[in-house]
Amino acid sequence: MERTDWGSLGFDYYKTDWNARYSFTNGTWSEMQVTDDEYIHMHMSASCLHYGIELFEGLKAFRGVDGKVRLFRVEENAKRLRSSAERLCLPVPTVEMIVEACIEVVKRNEKYIPPYGTGASLYLRPVMFGTTVGLGVKPAKDALLIIYASPVGAYFKEGIKPIQVALDREQDRAAPRGTGDVKVGGNYASSILSGEHAHRLGYSNVLYLDPKEHKYIEECGAANFFGIRDGKYITPKSDSILPSITNKSLRQIAADLGLVVEERPVLMEELSTFEECGACGTAAVISPIGRIVDLQTQAVYDYGMDNVGEVSMKLYTRLQDIQYGRADDPYGWCTIVEM
Ligand code: PLP
Ligand code: COI
């Protein structure tokens, strides 16, 4: 692909050349198959279509300042994929299978890895679903795991500029003891309506409260939440939020920058006490939250729409320095993909 406009890429699907697949049939996994086919041939009564037996992952490969390609924390994504598969009673691929396929997809699609300095990266999307034909609600015996790639820019069009977020108390994204802590399509399906409502009102994303008491901050529709106050990095702990790998990395970075890290239930009332807030995730990286508006009470929490908070900027810079190879990787987070 001869692109000159890498810097203006949004977060969308752009075709690359190759994807990798494993299928599970008759109780065993196939070898990895690499194909240029973007389509799948599937029965209309496959279990994923009717009962949402589907999961996915998201991770990025970065072209570094030194020209090397770094895949960020791929083993963590592989482990989370396994926990999603276990939750849906799908066959569980090994970490090695997932990592190997991710590396293969990055190598094969090298020309789609955005050049250093464009702010873009190669997003990998592992997706897995049950393919067993049937009508009853039961576990799928057969599955397909596909890992494909797409070059992407910022998830929120604002980039590192502050976003406005809508607090929605009327809809939850996940049930108290449901599937909020795994990355399954159903969580996103149930967030679409409230996400659309917020978009129409001009907000970039929704901030959800805990689904049991509606007292605690949960997370955004596509990213975890953190607040900064008095030298503390504060982030919600809850069984119904996705354990974000970016958030885990930021907690480590924050601690090493001398912040106190608190991972605990965060009361909604604390929103008015934060000096800075942010949404964090693979796609979002860190998106500073400039304003939160409670759609039901109209309460407004302002953190500044015109400037990025100092601590958020420090965390963002440190994370991206590691991802783009501008700084050492003391934690061993990056896998260098030899081309
Ligand atoms: N929370 C939700 C609901 C997400 O979809 C994502 C995106 O993956 C995250 C959090 C962030 O997780 P990670 O940092 O592992 O990408
Ligand atoms: C990610 O950050 O990788 C995500 O999966 C978020 C989103 C696009 C659903």
Question: Please, could you describe this protein's structure?
Answer:
This protein folds into two domains: about 5-150, D-amino Acid Aminotransferase, Chain A, domain 1, CATH 3.30.470.10; about 165-325, D-amino Acid Aminotransferase, Chain A, domain 2 (Alpha-Beta Barrel). The chain contains seven helices and 18 strands. The protein has about 350 residues and is α+β, with helices and mostly antiparallel strands. It has helices at about 45-50, 75-85, 95-110, 185-190, 190-200, 245-255, 310-325, and strands at about 20-25, 30, 35, 55, 60-65, 70, 120-130, 145-150, 165-170, 205-210, 215-220, 225-230, 230-235, 260-265, 275-280, 285-295, 300, 335. Helix 2 (about 75-85) packs across helix 3. The radius of gyration is 20 Å and the shape is globular. The mean pLDDT is about 95. Strands 1, 2, 3, 4, 5, 6, 7, 8 and 18 form a nine-stranded antiparallel β-sheet that branches. Strands 9, 10, 11, 12, 13, 14, 15, 16 and 17 form a nine-stranded mixed β-sheet that branches. Strand 1 and strand 2 (about 30) form a beta hairpin. The structure holds pyridoxal-5'-phosphate and 2-OXO-4-methylpentanoic acid. Pyridoxal-5'-phosphate binds near residues 223, 242 and 244.
